[in-house]
Amino acid sequence: MFTNMTIKELYKAFIKTLQQIYESNEATAIANITFEEYTSLKKNEIITKGETEVSEIIKEKLNTALERLLQNEPLQYILENAWFYNLQFTVNKNVLIPRPETEELVLEAINFIRQNNSKTMIDIGTGSGCISIAIKKNAPTVKVTAVDVSIDAINIAKQNALQNYTDIEFIEINFLEENNYEKLMQYDVIISNPPYIPNKEILDKNVVQFEPHLALFVPQNDPLIFYKKILSFADKHLTAKGKIFLEVHENFAKETAAIFTNKNYEVQVKLDMQGKERMLLICRCQIP
Question: pLDDT digit of tens for each residue in the chain (288 aa)?
């Protein structure tokens, strides 16, 4: 597609082609990230060095990236990396792409751990490991365990822990099977961004076609299944003054909260950056 073009011409053609399926601003943002990744040039450098020739290898990479983008594949999977909490993570089709909203949940947990000198934490459904690694990086004294049902996800999470210099215990486990809980200890912090999307809910193509359904969807008739299991786990594995941090579906926040309040837990529903009920902070009710 790209032949006999300077870097500036190539950049403009890349954006114009992306505008077939993306808004102008988003197409430009995607182009900026892609070109910086493959050419090591920022937007202003592309302009100032606009007449520079581009190697055939880079042209081929840009061609391939553009073809995949036009199929609605997320840029993070194409580049095989994503940023979360100022850290870089390897991502592929086996793990969800980290979302900025989840950073708010992580911040809540970090603040709690620091203020309470929490000793132990478990991340349920760790995926890429972004939650565990971001917390460990910013609260290095806490011992972190991270579990997931997918060995492919665990392998990516281990790779991310290594590249971000964090010591985390990863365990492959099916959390829906309660007999597995005996393998786990007590924790001062339980955190999870579990699957919570009913399997008939309509999502964007780039999510449905490329991100792992195992990490996204739950049965239509039991969308709170993971939260019920987390409650069961917490009854025996959350320390007396510990806290639970959950990301939830905005349409089910109150229903999810009720699962815990009905079992004598105190629940705070928090809004995310978009004003949606997306987080639950949960602790045991203190008996006078």
Answer: 656 678 888 889 999 999 998 899 999 999 999 999 998 888 888 878 767 777 888 888 999 999 999 988 999 999 999 999 999 999 999 998 999 999 999 999 999 999 999 999 999 999 999 999 999 999 999 999 999 999 999 999 999 999 999 999 999 999 999 999 998 999 999 999 987 666 665 555 555 565 565 565 566 667 888 899 999 999 999 999 999 999 998 888 999 999 999 998 999 999 988 899 999 999 987 654
Overall size of the chain counted in residues: 288
Distance CA 123, CA 190 (A): 6
Q: Is residue 76 part of a domain?
A: no
CA 66 to chain centroid, in Å, comes to 24
Angle at the Cα of 29 (from 160 to 23), degrees rounded to 5? Answer: 125
Please tell me the total count of domains within the chain.
2
141 and 230 assigned to the same domain? yes
Give residue for tokens 């910086």: 36
Domain boundary among 26, 44, 71: 71
DSSP assignments along 130-193, one per residue: HHHHHHHHHSTTSEEEEEES-HHHHHHHHHHHHHTT---EEEE--TT-GGGGGGS--EEEEEE-
Which domain covers residue 64, as residue numbers? 7-71
Looking at the structure, do residues 176 and 42 belong to the same domain, yes or no? no
Report residue 20 CA to chain centroid gap: 28
What is the rounded CA–CA span in Å between residue 188 and residue 145?
12
Structural domain contains residue 232: yes
Give the residue from 43, 39, 44, 33 showing the smallest Cα distance to 79: 33
Distances (CA, A) of 41 to 34, 87, 107: 10, 21, 32
